[in-house]
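INTERNAL AUDIT FORM
Audit reference: QA-55
Scope: verify that the stored structure record matches its stored sequence.
Auditor: D.O.
Record contents follow.
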Amino acid sequence: MKPTLLILISIALVSCGKKHNDLITNNIKGNVSQITENVYEVSEKFGDLQKGKLKTTNVIKYNDDGNVTEYRRISMPDSISGKEDNFETYQYKDGNRISSINGKSHKVGIRYNYDNDKLIETNTYNDNGSLSIKTKFKYNDDGLIAEADEYASTGSLNGRVINKYTDSKQIKEQDKITVDNKVESVTWYNYDAKDMLTGYKYKSGTYTANYLLKFSLFEKDNWLKLVNYYNSKPETLVERKIEYYN
């Protein structure tokens, strides 16, 4: 299974284990109040990009501290499924530390446990409130998450993720290891001179995928347009509108 853009967006949170705030984590500049992202199908014709139909709309709201308070994802209907509207709210305690995610489709969602400012454990719950998955984190000497161990509700190990970093403390490699201590998949990440993610390569068994991210139309140092390429072919076009607090 290939990693998604949403997974990539959360890389900084997973790696550092300590939230300054979501704007800093996702490399967003300024006092942003809301971001609306429209994700379109895209193709290439005679060397030019052609914007297709709208696939999803994401609306992310931020509080004055720069942390996400609401996340809404609206998926447009297709030949397989109808329109879907997913909504999550985020709660905080002690400043910037996220304590739980409550979606309308489940009662508890995910709870984050901290030791002072260091994320040490996450607990994911089923709709009935029972524990589904527990994840524990280990850190390197730079205070970055070096390993994430995932456990089933029974306490047995499901597998682990191992992170490797660049000199500027960005994830350069992420290895997913099975319970039998075998490499299930590896993802390598590329950055520009400003440590902005520009692409990644994913390998699982004989399957290999290369992704390229091309950003454009910057406003207040924030990108407004992104084209995602999969194995050299354009896959999605993301256009976003950014609103700021006065």
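Auditor finding: record pair retrieved intact. The first strand starts at residue 32 and ends at 45.
Action required: none
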